[in-house]
Design goal:
Length: 61
């Protein structure tokens, strides 16, 4: 089984760039304080890195 990361949306996207809003939606986050688990692929990590000021990332064993 592959590595996973848990992503939690912790800061509002009001006044954020439209690219960041679209990235949050692409990660599967629907509303503030929403949590998703994703495979830790380079693509997902890159998306999370681009909105790192709006989310918290945690490694899942």
């Amino acid at each position: 089984m592959g590595e996973k990361i848990r992503i939690k949306w912790v800061k509002s996207d009001i006044n954020a760039l439209w690219k960041h809003k679209r990235t949050l939606k692409a990660l599967g986050l629907r509303r503030l304080n929403d949590v998703v688990e994703k495979a830790a692929s380079p693509q997902v990590r890159g998306m999370a890195y681009s909105v790192r000021h709006l989310i918290e990332i945690e490694e899942v064993p």
